[in-house]
Amino acid sequence: MIEFRQVTKRYDSDHTALRQVSFQLERGELAFLTGHSGAGKSTLLKLLMVMERPTAGDVVVGGQHLNRLPKRQIPYIRRHIGVVFQNHQLLFDRTVFDNVAMPLEVMGVSPTDIGRRVRAALDKVGLLKKEKMNPMQLSGGEQQRVGIARAVVNKPPVLLADEPTGNLDPDLSADIMHLFTQFSQVGVTVLIASHDVALINAMDRRQLTLEQGRLIAGGHSGH
Ligand code: ADP
Ligand code: ADP
């Protein structure tokens, strides 16, 4: 579902963020992306979101070569990639329902379908009863689950998360990880950038480890 082939990203002569990174993630696989600050994790996620383009090599998602994608196609590709942020980026001037509905409204989905799909997403994260509330009234863990519902509301085959448990205590973090596991079990490919060593070890999943832009573990192909 996700493939990096010898991907190098150089921002300028002093900043090479990724060096010949190669790996594949299959449909339904859940993996962690680890490494110290500055190792290249955000850059790798940005290449998948087509916020940056590789300097060399290929990034392929669902058979699509992202580096050859014309600009006008980028919004369509992004619909296939759900993203969860550490600070969840919810809007506090609208309800939980309306926050989750946002991606569907952008796509022009009919109100009936929006209602059905938003409630299905809220049900998956256990927040169906809180659809009318303002995110401000929710706990940190619940807010993060609203962010996850929004990321999966259009059923993307790929889910990316950037430090999704950064502000949560261990119990809530485990709940969030359980949700990610459930999505992977229904075929979503999940890649989670995280520093949370205890949590990652408890999960016992594949770890892609970056060090100064090189993939030093988890690539499975000798890189
Ligand atoms: P991480 O997410 O692991 O902290 P980043 O991908 O943010 O790592 O950064 C990797 C390297 O690339 C760092 O040396 C960083 O300073 C550099 N870098 C990131 N973004 C830019 C940019 N827009 N311009 C120049 N250098 C950048
Ligand atoms: P994080 O640790 O969350 O990646 P940073 O402060 O490293 O946060 O980066 C914030 C933003 O600045 C990111 O979009 C990153 O790509 C960009 N950035 C990081 N390093 C540089 C750099 N040396 N020059 C320009 N932009 C950079």
UniProtKB/TrEMBL annotation:
Q: Per UniProt, which keywords does this protein have?
A: ATP-binding, Cell cycle, Cell division, Cell membrane, Membrane, Nucleotide-binding
Record has Nucleotide-binding as a keyword = yes
Q: Which InterPro entries match?
A: AAA+_ATPase (IPR003593), ABC_transporter-like_ATP-bd (IPR003439), ABC_transporter-like_CS (IPR017871), ABC_transpr_LolD-like (IPR015854), Cell_div_FtsE (IPR005286), P-loop_NTPase (IPR027417)
Protein's recorded name: Cell division ATP-binding protein FtsE
Organism equals: Marinobacter persicus
Entry's Gene Ontology BP terms: cell division
GO CC, sorted alphabetically, is: plasma membrane
Q: Ranges for the ABC transporter domain?
A: 2-223
Subunit-structure text: Homodimer. Forms a membrane-associated complex with FtsX.
